[in-house]
Amino acid sequence: MIRLLIVFLGLLSIPVSQVTVQQKQHDYPKDYFRSPVDQAIKLSGTFGELRPNHFHAGIDIKAKSGQVGQNIYAVADGVVSRINIKSSGYGNALYINHPNGYTSVYAHLEKFPKHIADYMHRKQYEKQQSEVEIYPPKDLFPFKKGDIIGTLGVSGRSYGPHLHFEIRNTKTEVPINPLHFGFSIDDKVRPDLRAIKLYGLDSQMNELETKQYTLRNKGSNFYPSKDTIEMNTYEVGIALKAYDQMTGVSNLNGIYALEMFVDDSLAFSFSMDEISFDETRFINAHMDYFERETKKSYYNRCFKLPGNNLSIYHNDEWDGVVKINKTKASKVKYVVTDIHQNVSESTFWVKKSSSDKDLEGKPYHYLLYHDQDNVISQKDINLFIPKGALYRDLQFEFLTSEENSYNVQSPIYHLDEYTTPMHKYFDLSIRPNSPLGEFKSKAFIGYCGKDNNFVNCGGTWEGDMLKTKTSQLGNFCIMLDTVPPTINPVKFRSILNGYRSISFKIEDNYDVGKGGKGMSYQGYIDDQWVLMTYNGKNETITYRIDEKLKAGKHTFKLIVSDALGNTTTFEKPISL
Length: 576
Fold this sequence. Notes:
By secondary structure, the chain is mainly β. The protein is built from five helices and 46 strands.
C-alpha cells in the first residue's frame, strides 16, 4: 500500500503537460526511413496545419535551390501502389507501399522516372483522359531505398516548388505525422503565439460577444495587453492564433500540440499525430471559420463544439468552455509545444464583468439542430439539412429579395451567412419565377460569393424545381448560362517546325463551386484523340508534340465545353 502511494505521488510530481503529451505518443519506427531529399529538411508546411476545409496531411519540404527539378528519393524499399496525374490537388503523385505496413506519398512532382512516365502516357491514351489515377499491378514498379522516384515540382495545387510528403498507415490510409519517424530537422525555435480571441457564450454555445487581443512576448512567455479580461457572459470560449517556426526558415507553420489550463487544471488539449481523411473537414469546427473566411486568419478553437468529432483531442470529457464569475478571476494558461519540445506559454485571467445587462443573440427565423435532420419548405424553395451537417444548433436567418439583374431567374434567397461552417452537403431546391422553355437546360443554381461573383453550383430538374447539393450557406438563386467558353492561342502557329508544344488559354464566364461541374476539353489531330494537359493556375491547356504527330499536313482541333453544354471549337490546319 505504501509503495502504491509513493508511485501515485511520483506521478503527481510530473508536470501535467508532460503527462498529457506522452499519452498520445506511439511506437513509430525511428530508423526505418531515410529522407526523401538529399539536403537538410526545411519545412514550409507542417502536419495538421490549418488549411481551407482540411488539415494538412503531410509536411512540405522546401526545394534546395528554390527551383523545380531536384531529385526525390524513395524513403525505403517498396512497390508503387498508386500513381496520380491531376491538374489540381496533389498533381503528379506517387504512392509506395513498404513492407513495414506504411505507405509513403510524394506529391506535386515535376516528373516521374521514364519507365513510369511512359506507362502513364500509355494509360492516358488508353483511357483518352489527361487526368488519371492508376493502381498498377503489384510489384510492377519496385524501388529500393534511395532510388530516384521523380523530381520536385509545382504540379497540381502548388504555388511554389516543394515536395509534399506523407506517411500513411497502409491498411487504413490514415496519414501520420512524418516527424514521428525520426527525420533529422534543425529546430531550436519556440512556437510564436500571436493572438487570442474570446467568445462570450450562452448555454447553447451561441456567441453573444467576442474580444480579440494581440499577444506580445518576453522570452518564451506571451501576454495580452490586458492582464484581466472581462466578459459579459458566464461561459467563455477561447481561440489561439499560433504558429510553429524552425531554425533557418521564415515560414509560419502550423503548431503540433496545445494545452489549455484553467486555474491550473487541464481543460483542453490536442496534438497533431494522426488525422483521418474521414475527419479532416471537422477542421471547420476546430478553427474559427469566421476569421478564416473574412480575414484569412487561422485560430485554433480551444473549446469543442457539440458536433465536432475530431480524434485529435485528448479527452472526450473536456469541452474547454471556461466558467467565470464576478468575484474571482479565472487563470487561463496556454502551453504550446512543437514536435522538437520547444515550448511557449501565455497566461492571462478572465472574469465576469460587473454589468447585469443580458446580451442578446442575433434575430433568426428557424432553429436548426446539429443532431437531427432539418427541413425548411416554402412555396418556391426547399432545404433539407441532414443530421451532422451543423457543428452546433443554428439560429438560422432566412431572407428573400427580388433581383432584376441579367440572367437571374428567381428571387435571391439569403440562407444565413457564408461564415457559418457546414460539415456536410445539404439539398437545395428553387423554383424559377416563370417557365424557362428552351432555356431550361441552361439553368443552374448560382451562389453569390462575398465578392459578388456568381458561382455555378449545378442543378438537376425535379418537376419544376431545380435541385442541387451544396456545403456552404449564403445567397442563392437560379441563373442561366448561354455563353460558351473562350479559346485563345498562347503559343500556336500552323507550321510547327521548331515547336515542342502548343498551348491555349481557356476560360468560362462562371466559376464552378461544390455541386457543379467544370469545363471539359478534348484535343484531336486528324480526328484522333491527343493528350492535352490543363494548368489551373494559369488556365492554359497544352499539347506537347509527341509520336502521334507525324511529319506532313494535319488538322488540329480543340473542343471546350462548359458545365451547361455550351461549346467552343478551335480548328486549324497544322504541318510538321
